């Protein structure tokens, strides 16, 4: 991996976060990583790390072992048309664009290629993303290479491509849903006497602790809930009232609404 040449086309927030995570982990040398953006002055922070920054997508794609397409879905065809002659059949393509399937990407290139789709969430900026990845025409070594790169910015796993829309909702949209819970808990904290800043700090750390508890102990949420719900206790009373008000069902309906929006394009 150290000698792989990697290009990220599209040095926006996501592209920059991935670039920083890869370089800071030392999985490759900074000089082997290239990031493109029209206004390369906005990539000065990456250049300061030794990363190559240029505006020429074609030049950046030449001799690259792995190319990340970090652009908007409506830009994908245009970018691929621009770089396809610089890409060989051994080049690994990683698309970060929502809703563009692997067959479409491969058809744009006009040749059989190992194509990955990846869906990080915004926690990639702090190295805590949950990234779901699908693989097309890829062998195990290529899968491991892509997984290794995304593991530098959080957790990553390979899923069937047909679940990528679901991954978008559960992991990418899920960040917003979790943040909305924290906001609501903060507002409730203010109602019961805390100042806004203190309520936010308590709510945020409580959610972080709950998530870490499940990840580290590999238990089910209900198992952990049972530990803090005692007969006639305050926790079970609060939980039951939330369920009476539709807490779980509204969250599930929200997930399904977002999923249907992706599936139906409406």
UniProtKB/TrEMBL annotation:
GO terms for cellular component: cytoplasm. NADP(+) binds at residues 9-14. GO terms for molecular function: pyrroline-5-carboxylate reductase activity. GO terms for biological process: L-proline biosynthetic process. This is Pyrroline-5-carboxylate reductase. Residues 161-261 form the Pyrroline-5-carboxylate reductase dimerisation domain. Its main location: cytoplasm. The lineage of its organism: Bacteria, Pseudomonadati, Bacteroidota, Bacteroidia, Marinilabiliales. Its EC number is 1.5.1.2. It catalyses: L-proline + NAD(+) = (S)-1-pyrroline-5-carboxylate + NADH + 2 H(+); L-proline + NADP(+) = (S)-1-pyrroline-5-carboxylate + NADPH + 2 H(+). Residues 5-98 form the Pyrroline-5-carboxylate reductase catalytic N-terminal domain. It is an enzyme of class 1 (oxidoreductase). Catalyzes the reduction of 1-pyrroline-5-carboxylate (PCA) to L-proline. It is found in: Cytoplasm. Keywords: Amino-acid biosynthesis, Cytoplasm, NADP, Oxidoreductase, Proline biosynthesis.
